[in-house]
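Handoff note, outgoing to incoming analyst
You'll be picking up this chain. Sequence as last confirmed:
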Amino acid sequence: MKKRDVFILFFLFTIITCYSQKNIEKLTTKEIKETIDAVGKVIKEKYVFPEIANTIVELINSNLKKDHYKSLSNPEELAKILTKDIQSINHDKHLRVFYNPESQGRESTEMSAEDREKFLEKMREMEKRDNFTFKEVKILDGNIGYINFRGFRDPEYASETVIATMNFLSNTDAIIFDLRNNGGGYPQMVQLLSSYFFDGDPIHLNTFYNRVDETNEQFWTLPYVPGKRLPDVQLYILTSSSTFSAAEEFSYNLKHLKRAVIIGETSGGGAHPGESFQISKKFKVWTSTGRAINPITNSNWEGVGVIPHIKTSEKDALISARLKALDSLKSVNTDVFRNDFYDWHIGTLKAVQTPVNVPLSSLKSYVGTYANLAISLENGVLYYQSGTDSKVKLTPIDNSTFQYGELTDVRLLFLRKNDQVEALMTTNVYGRSDTYTKDKN
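Most recent structure output, in case you need it:
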């Protein structure tokens, strides 16, 4: 089976197995034995690791002989216990037995080719309305691109969204991929996105081995991508325990190619694609039929996840990545002006990371009028007002420097002389400033 079909088929399978199941008929002793035999046969023939498959089959056959399954006449309970037993050998959560009766009245759990195509078309329309899970694309302070998307959708339909995203971020100095809530999808999308960040000869990204047909499918960077390649742009990938499957592949590949810095939590650990097999009129088995083989490690992330370079909580991963990116960009920069630019934004983020508590006495000393500007204090918070304009909240960067509202490129600095506040300076990240003398009461 092509890896591009795995995501769709698993999704279909999940929907199908959720059909209502009424009037469940109890299993006979003969049906229980036949089910155990059929489960063992599929796992022995299809499971990606033959030796482990043999061990699993030995276990359930032994349990059968010991009458562990004799009382499980409820098919849903039998499926649950079998799933627990077959996963117990190597904790592969892809191995599952489902009670999935062939028909329930008018509804069939097997879709016709026509119905399947209609279902897929509806799903593609849903994905289009969801912008193929691309939730947020923007440029953060310091000329750092940010992409938050939730799934690696089929590039046959999602490529235009990817191309637009990459064109928008083509002039950034660094890009952060937020995969903290990305559950995976198509390796072809991994291939397309990865291809933007390499130049020259094709790079071997990954190989998928399939035991069923004894094939190896290799994925390399593409010889052509629409738009600009970004081989020198710094890459950062945010991960969490919810990062899974293709999202892990993207992270794992770029980590071992030394092309990206991974920041956050260890990912979920799912590297084995699989298929479902109908073993009787009442049961299906989902089993891993393949595995990823990274050309550098000759291994994958199954069961262990992608381990980040910088471990931090899911919540703190983004700000940690932004600080890391700014610091790294500053380290390779040779322009003095740009150093001030990076220091500015690093200061802002550190104030967010660890809020500054300015003494109340200092806050009170800043209150007053500065020409046509007014500084007031309300519930321990400073506010700025120009003329009759609305008040703007001031957030401390340090004891005497404050951010103007939500504008991270504008600050107010209170100037002292002989321990007395005598002026207010407004300044921006590009160095422009204006000074206003404090009115004397």
